[in-house]
Design brief:
mainly beta, about 120 residues, Ig-like_CS_Receptor, two-stranded antiparallel sheet
Length: about 120
Amino acid sequence: LPAPQPQVLPEHESVSYSVSSTVGVSLTPGDARSQLTCQIEHSTLPAPLRGTYNLCDALRVPPRLRVGTDPPVPIVVNGSVTFPCCAEGFYPKDVSLTWLENGNETGLGKASPRLRIQ
């Protein structure tokens, strides 16, 4: 990742120093399973120190929603029809699905979670 050169402070005023760096990341839905790691090496360390941030802790992806009919329209009067509602592509997985008719909760329908791990 491109990042500006870290700044070590203070340069001549102390026997101990601090270093900081920032990096900007444009997150995509696929980053939900990614980690970002900051690593520092120093002559006093036997191995590099690493700090890791799970991008899923910051990433939120809104659902896409599709509502249709089965069978496809047109449907004859007194015919039976099913209305599937499908929410896809969201993160995290917690979601609530409710059917409303004319703005009032129907109490009908059931949610069947389909989990797809990519």
